[in-house]
Amino acid sequence: MSQTNPANIVVERENSSNHQNFIKYKLMKEKYNYERARNVSIVQALAKLGHFPQKESDKEAWFLSPFRSETQASLKVSKTLNKWYDHGEGIGGNCIDIVAKITTWPIKEVVQLLNGEIIVTSFREYVEEESKNALRVRECRTIQHAALKQYLAYRRIPLTIAHTQLKEIVFQLKQKEYFALGFENDRGGWELRNKYQKLATSPKTVTYHKNNSDKLIVTEGAFDYLSLLTLKPKWITNSDFLILNSLAFVKHQLEQIKMYKELILLLDNDDAGSRFTKLILEEIPNGIDGREYFKGYKDLNEKLQDEFGIRK
After folding, report:
1. Same domain, yes or no: 56 and 126
2. Domains held by the chain: number
3. What gap in Å lies between CA 295 and CA 287, rounded to an integer?
4. Single residue among 133, 157, 179 that ends a domain in this structure
């Protein structure tokens, strides 16, 4: 009858125990990596993928959905919860979920990406694909296209004003060519608008129009500014203008805004506009909330259109 060597039993038990400990360690590490990736700021993760908020406050940010073409931001990110929700599709989730949906990568690779690990092949493929789909300006010229002139007519912006403030931009997006009205920012980027698209090129920042005035007028976007020039043409000569192009730039501009003796805020009549108007006035108490001028309208362009009797 064969006898079992007690020493062998001890070795087998030790090997089994070591293997179990390794599996336990591996599972704990995977769970830790997953939790760490899930807690990465969604706003920062989207920025790395080339998606930036159209509107932003301390608690939330609104993006154009990365999953379809749209002109109004419908994807909301809660900064306090670090969760996202796409109102257009009725879906949402955490940071891992949205990065996986955008990149179509396996969850394991998404976790590695968010944790700063290098995934050479996959990341290169993603960058190359994104490069093909990136927005590229092909030509900048005076406004010529009839469709853009019609769009200006719909927004009730005179061509005489448009020609001094805008350009016609021919651009490529996802290997297709488009054209739009372009409003240039202070770093050479463009806010692009046509009937169907609301886009921006990098770098994105504010637009300052300075007339050596001690009075500053602040608007959210290009069409607010153009509408004001249409409604109040004399204001262009006795005021400086700050067009934010995104409420995300408000905090970065506060020190510059404080340098003016007189300040008029003409942000939109919505929740975000109210929050940022309040934020600025808390820092600059002598500023004026000028939205009374277009009370009952969402913004200056809506007022302009209504005065010409074309709102539906």
Report:
1. yes
2. 3
3. 18
4. 133
pLDDT band at 263 (very low <50, low <70, confident <90, very high): very high
Residue 286 forms part of a structural domain: yes
Spatial contact of 171 and 192, defined as CB atoms under 8 Å apart: yes
Domain that holds residue 285: 208-312
Taking only the tens place, the pLDDT of each residue in 52-89 is: 899 889 899 999 988 876 677 889 999 999 999 988 77
- Cβ–Cβ contacts within 10 Å for residue 118, how many? 8
Provide the whole-model pTM: 0.62
Edge to edge, the sheet with strand 240-243 lists: 207-209, 240-243, 215-219, 262-266, 288-289
Residue 25 lies in a domain: no
Tokens of 255: 């020190």
Cis peptide before 203 (omega within 30 of 0): yes
CATH number at residue 266: 3.40.1360.10
User: Do residues 205 and 245 lie in contact, with contact meaning Cβ atoms separated by under 8 Å?
Assistant: yes
Please give the backbone phi and psi of residue 33, each rounded to the nearest 5 degrees, phi first: -65, -40
